[in-house]
């Protein structure tokens, strides 16, 4: 026990552990280099979410490599990949699985659905019905499914990457707040830089896009080890208080409430937002080669963590106030420790 704080001394990550983590993360990055051009923030978001045991919601117009990025992450960790194309007629059993009756033995057998994979891509999740969307809640939160009254554990690690198209609303079902909150982060992708687009065209013409991956991926045991190292990254009490103050500020409270924020934000961030901040900050610190979290680690993930957790009022929507602007208001109001 520490005499000064009454807390047990923190376990410092060793040099060999840092060296191993750096090597494994470099191997993941090498696989991405072969498959994905640019999109550095997307890469970092996917890898940090994997280390933080979180799920990711990707939003962009078509053709920005969302599916490619998800498949590449699965290849980089030697994980089982499943892609589910969401449509209005997709049923819950199509995702979680079902029981099939065998007439020869007069018994039921369980057929597990595609959600029983290490990395599951839900393509255009907002095209599936509310009933089908809700079927993912147990899987994403409880890491298990129920088929015929029997619980089936999902693989470890398990991660969901869902995509949605913001420009087409016909035939879509808006994700409810409860479902949105299950995603650790929401990443909004923009168009690539012109130089990156030239590189994409060159790779397509040369056939490099379809070439087999030669970089050495890591395995699932390595992912579990990276997650255990992430769990050991130290977070000072002042950082935890900083996160709580930010979360409370989004609700119209906090140590320095933002004037008139309640006219712009109908519902602030839930406690899951605070958990997401800490877990992602730990992952960011480990990826930066540190065994402790800084306020900058928290600030660097502010948009992905909060943009889908702030429910804007009608006034904010009418005035086209962006979620990112509201996030900045909350952060600017809270003193940095």
Please give a structural write-up.
The chain is α/β, with parallel strands linked by helices and 337 residues long. The chain folds into two domains: 191 residues, P-loop containing nucleotide triphosphate hydrolases (Rossmann fold), CATH 3.40.50; 101 residues, Orthogonal Bundle (Helicase, Ruva Protein, domain 3). A five-stranded parallel sheet has the order 2-5-8-1-9. Helix 8 crosses helix 10. It is globular. The model has no long low-confidence stretch (mean pLDDT 86).
Q: Helix and strand layout, with pairings?
A:
Layout: H1 15-35, H2 40-51, E1 56-59, H3 66-76, E2 81-85, H4 92-96, E3 97-102, E4 107-112, E5 119-123, H5 130-142, E6 144-147, E7 150-153, E8 159-164, H6 177-180, E9 185-188, H7 194-206, H8 220-231, H9 237-250, E10 265-267, H10 271-287, H11 295-300, H12 302-306, E11 311-312, H13 314-318, H14 323-333
Parallel strand pairs: 1-8, 1-9, 2-5, 5-8
Antiparallel strand pairs: 3-4, 6-7, 10-11
Helix pairs in contact: 1-3, 8-10, 9-10, 9-14
Key phrases:
337 residues, alpha/beta, Rossmann fold, Helicase, Ruva Protein, domain 3, 2 domains, five-stranded parallel sheet, two-stranded antiparallel ribbon, 11 strands
Short characterization:
By secondary structure, the protein is an alpha/beta fold. It has helices at residues 15-35, 40-51, 66-76, 92-96, 130-142, 177-180, 194-206, 220-231, 237-250, 271-287, 295-300, 302-306, 314-318, 323-333; strands spanning 56-59, 81-85, 97-102, 107-112, 119-123, 144-147, 150-153, 159-164, 185-188, 265-267, 311-312. It folds into 2 domains: 15-200 and 219-223, P-loop containing nucleotide triphosphate hydrolases (Rossmann fold, 3-Layer(aba) Sandwich), CATH 3.40.50; 233-333, Magnesium chelatase subunit I, C-Terminal domain (Helicase, Ruva Protein, domain 3).
């Amino acid at each position: 026990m520490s005499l000064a704080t009454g807390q047990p001394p923190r376990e410092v990550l060793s040099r060999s552990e840092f060296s191993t983590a750096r090597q494994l993360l470099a191997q993941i990055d090498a696989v991405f280099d072969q498959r994905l051009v640019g999109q550095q923030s997307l890469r970092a978001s996917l890898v940090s979410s994997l280390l933080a045991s979180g799920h990711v919601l990707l939003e962009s117009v078509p053709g920005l490599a969302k599916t490619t990025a998800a498949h590449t992450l699965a290849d980089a960790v030697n994980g089982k990949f499943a892609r589910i194309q969401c449509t209005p007629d997709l049923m819950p059993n199509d995702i979680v699985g079902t029981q099939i009756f065998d007439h020869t033995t007069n018994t039921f057998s369980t057929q597990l659905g595609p959600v029983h994979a290490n990395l599951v891509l839900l393509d255009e999740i907002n095209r599936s019905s509310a009933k089908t969307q809700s079927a993912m809640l147990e899987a994403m939160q409880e890491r298990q499914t129920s088929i015929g009254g029997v619980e089936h554990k999902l693989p470890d690690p398990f991660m969901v990457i869902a995509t949605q198209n913001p420009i087409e609303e016909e035939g879509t079902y808006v994700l409810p707040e409860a479902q949105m909150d299950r995603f650790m982060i929401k990443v909004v992708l923009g168009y690539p830089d012109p130089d990156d687009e030239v590189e994409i065209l060159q790779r397509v013409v040369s056939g490099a896009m379809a070439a087999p991956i030669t970089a050495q991926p890591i395995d699932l045991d390595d992912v579990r080890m990276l997650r255990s190292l992430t769990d050991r990254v130290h977070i000072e009490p002042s950082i935890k208080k900083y996160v709580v103050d930010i979360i409370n500020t989004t609700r119209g409270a906090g140590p320095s409430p933002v004037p008139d924020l309640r006219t712009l934000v109908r519902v602030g961030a839930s406690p899951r937002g605070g958990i997401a901040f800490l877990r992602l900050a730990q992952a960011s610190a480990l990826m930066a080669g540190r065994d402790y979290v800084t306020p900058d680690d928290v600030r660097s993930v502010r948009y992905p963590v909060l943009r889908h957790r702030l429910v804007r009022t009608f006034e904010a929507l009418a005035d086209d106030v962006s979620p990112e602007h509201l996030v900045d208001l909350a952060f600017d109001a809270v003193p940095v420790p």
